[in-house]
């Protein structure tokens, strides 16, 4: 349902008793208004019933997962803050509607719709709670804190579990492949290497079983290995699966296509250390994602991934077949990649 400031709220249909204090009245009106979340249905099928999940059920599941899985966060997180984020994150969908993860057309104006919905919804609250809740919602959307990144990881992991348990679920939507699923779920790795390893295993198993169409070759795990030959020193290039970066849409980095930011220094140092190094930007991500993911592929199919800030700016998240690094400056990022290439 599109957000419209002229649309009467559900709370307006439940008048509060005379004499109700103003602050309490606004809080109760918000509680009544968000009851609509129980009637916003997602695409994900439930495991326990033959129907789709609603947003309220989804948010409850994320809260439970946060309590159970926070120990796997790569950075210390405040559980109570993550809980607040996962409870709040989809409330805007009572006005903006649910946007299917793999719907590129609907994703085009998703941010605009949801921000308008947030403006309308949180305005029901007393001013201090309005500002606090909106700040938490914005923080979640922008993934600017460990808590926001972990909350987003929970948001992407939970439907993955439902699809895996349903032997495909929304993975069977027309045009969706394992590469699409990997691209859309990769934010899990921004919060937890362990959970990203697990998620990749689910996606790989789904592709093996035909629950999601495979993009030709098996995707790598977060360590770069799909089996003993792929990770061993004796494995030849032909033993290793075709890297994901060679199976999805990409564009090359080079003199004719630079990022215009510090990342250019990093990539130039890597290319100088390994002139045959292939460097490409992955372009399979959907509009809601950033486009700052670069892949470095050696002639023997070793692969590293560099995720950057806007326009090639720090911080740099570097994942190689041996380690994962969060780096704040270009010089250190270049040294990590050169050491990896020369190892």
Outline of the structure:
The protein is α+β, with helices and mostly antiparallel strands. Helix content is 43%, strand content 10%. It has a 6-stranded antiparallel beta sheet with strand order 3-4-5-6-7-8, covered by helices on one side. A two-stranded antiparallel sheet has the order 1-2.
Descriptive key words:
alpha+beta, Hypothetical protein af1432
Describe this structure in words.
- This protein has 343 residues and is an alpha+beta fold.
- It folds into two domains: 10-206, Hypothetical protein af1432 (Orthogonal Bundle); 241-342, no CATH class.
- 43% of the residues lie in helices and 10% in strands.
- It has helices at 22-33, 55-69, 79-88, 93-96, 104-107, 110-122, 127-142, 146-165, 178-185, 193-208, 228-231, 263-273, 330-342; strands spanning 41-45, 52-54, 250-252, 278-282, 293-297, 303-307, 316-319, 324-327.
- The strands form two sheets. It has a six-stranded antiparallel beta sheet with strand order 3-4-5-6-7-8, with helices on one face. A two-stranded antiparallel sheet has the order 1-2.
- A hairpin with a 4-residue loop joins β7 and β8 (324-327).
- It is globular.
- The termini are far apart.
- 37% of the residues are buried.
- The model is unreliable at 217-249 and 284-290 (pLDDT under 50).
Chart the SSEs and their pairings.
Blueprint: H1 22-33, E1 41-45, E2 52-54, H2 55-69, H3 79-88, H4 93-96, H5 104-107, H6 110-122, H7 127-142, H8 146-165, H9 178-185, H10 193-208, H11 228-231, E3 250-252, H12 263-273, E4 278-282, E5 293-297, E6 303-307, E7 316-319, E8 324-327, H13 330-342
Antiparallel strand pairs: 1-2, 3-4, 4-5, 5-6, 6-7, 7-8
Helix pairs in contact: 2-3, 2-8, 3-7, 3-8, 7-8, 8-10, 9-10, 12-13
